[in-house]
Specification:
The complex is a heterodimer of chains A (about 400) and B (about 350). With about 400 residues, chain A is mainly alpha-helical. Chain A has helices at about 10-30, 30-35, 45-60, 85-95, 100-105, 115-125, 135, 145-155, 160-165, 170-185, 190-200, 210-225, 225-235, 250-265, 275-305, 310-325, 330-335, 355-365, 375-394. The chains are: A mainly alpha (about 400), B mainly alpha (about 350).
Amino acid sequence: MSSGGGGGTPPQEDRVLGAFIGLAIGDAAGWPAARHRSLRLAPWSRRLHRELDAFAEERQVTTLPVPFALNQPVEPLALGPSDDAEWLAWTAATIHDDRAEAFGRLAERDDLRARISVWSALDNLAAGLGPPASGHDNPHFFDDAAAVRAVAFGAAGMDPVADAQVTNSGDGVLGAVAVATAVGALVRGAPMREAVDAAVGALPEDTAIGHAARTAVAVAREHGDPFAAVPALDAALLDHVYSYGVAAAETVPIALALADVAMSPGEPPEESLGEPAGGAAGKAGASALGAGGAFGAAVSAAACLASVADSAPALTGALAGACAGHAALPEGWRTAARTLTGCCLPELAGADLLAVARALVAGHGTGSTRDSTGISIQMATQMATQMATRRGTA
Amino acid sequence: MTAPLASLSPLPPLSPRDRARGCLLGLAAGDALGAPAENLTPEAIAARWGVLDEIEGGGTDDTEYSLFAASLLLRHGHALTSQDVVEAWRTEIVARADGPMRGAGFSELGTVQALRRGLRPPLTGRWHPHGWSDGLAMRAAPYGIFAAGDPDEAARLAEVDGRVSHSGEGVLGGRAVAAAVAVAMTGAEPGEVIEAGLRAIPADSWTARAVGKAIEIADAGRETTSREEFARGLHDAVVVKHYPWTDLAPEAVALAFSAYLRGGGEVEAAVVTAANLGRDADTTAAIAGALAGAGTGEAGVPARWARRIGAVTGRCLPVVAGRHVLDAADRLVDRLTDRLAERTSDRPADRLVEGM
């Protein structure tokens, strides 16, 4: 299924790489990636896009415009990772820095693209309001920006809370805790079911994210297969009242539930449920597909939930990738997902996410982490870009 | 409830009835005046109206949801529970929400969906991510009327209501407004009213921080700052730049309190100041009007505005169609008077009775 990549890599490192590249694959999957990546194109092309949307509305045509390149390079619109992979790379490269200081450096910049929670936190930092207030006095304190970054903390075996509190609060911080808990357990070799149960257990029942996580996991297990669970997850979790699609209370539970049902050896579905064919097929499917196929089933299902298709596939990919390991992921996707485009953090254009992940492992695993200052973003970028260039010319 | 109402003010005491009528009339006038300025910038408002100070149309959700809150109090009084509020939402809002929910904000629609799922408070207010909306602050004034002179009780009642539809800062916004109205009902000075609002919420909260900044700006520039400078300074201090909506309770409460202070507690000045700040202008002007109207009584509401306030149409909340804020104010005070009569039968010297 996969050619190389995992041969000489120790299992734990392979699972860290799987978490990173798994996230990038999920980030690349589905319709939102090209919209993020179109930020690399000239602003007027996105203005034309908005005008085409208005045209479609006015003339009642159902041919919805998709991001396009006119007199510009088409490379940004090819299949590839976008916002979440870049923020994960930034997090890994700065993970040993004080989190308020790391974000404080971003607050001085005007060339970023970021979630509302992150921008509001940067505004708070610039106004002298540090964490946890920077994440609390924040209209999108509940989003999953910190949950995405928590993939790096989970992979490094580090506590994600100090980082999460810079940009988030409440369910936003809990989402980060759940993701770091699950990813941490998976890279240490825990089975998916154990990792998901630990993550859900970290979420209080009387919170939206805690209630939703328990609901999502139960719904997915009942259907026994990620794709089969999509309509039920949509009905059980998504109210379609609010439009941003990155609420941690929606995306993190869906990721936990889809990864769980795809990567856990299924229990036989209840005979009385009246769906013996679907349940049995789902169970057989997951095991017959192998880890890479189960990974694909989980990420694809997340991308089918349109209103959370921006980040739920990425989080699902991080969990499923950490479980499967990098070597087991489909090779075409691994190749497409590893090179960042710089649509949110321009300095990451061309950076190799795999190199960033390896650097995190090296920094974490050398035994000298106590006084490690970590690698700077410039170092990581430089190194990653060099590797990408070498790969491109090879 | 033992605070000596009216005795705090050096002016001749107004009756609780007069203050209650002024409070809800001021709220309705602010709602109606601010409605066309909602989501506009101060600059756009100035370009269109110069100063927006004449009511053009009817009120909106602020008045109608306040009437809904008043009806909860009239039915349940101080014994109101969140379960009572849930039942009222189920029978009077959810059951009638099959068509388009005109005038329903995200928090209301999110609550309807949570109730349809069978969730119970406080999860109903947490399930949707709009817990911080100003939807409770906009309807909290009746709790202040009903608990006149007792800001703790006013805040408690607002929270009993609010935990059904809100969480976090949205509940705090409602607590702050209810407590402030409760003290405004005693005729206290505006500064004291706002202090009471702040005492009802934790100092370590977004709302407290936003109100603190807004007080500073109002205090600093009342004499010398132009309307434009005031609006700009306030926007820079409390408006979130990277969020596209105007419905955040910390922002709305801060803008409303600041306008009330800058207006010196006078209804027209407070309401016009709030409405011309833009953002959620109907809600901020309604809150400023409720605070000022409770202080001045009915006579403080400009007659040209009062004439424009009729029974509500139910455009946002069909169940309250045909009700008038002055009737609601009278009925709330009737309940207040009954309760006081009961309580004061043991203590005939209670000063509250004197003002009625």
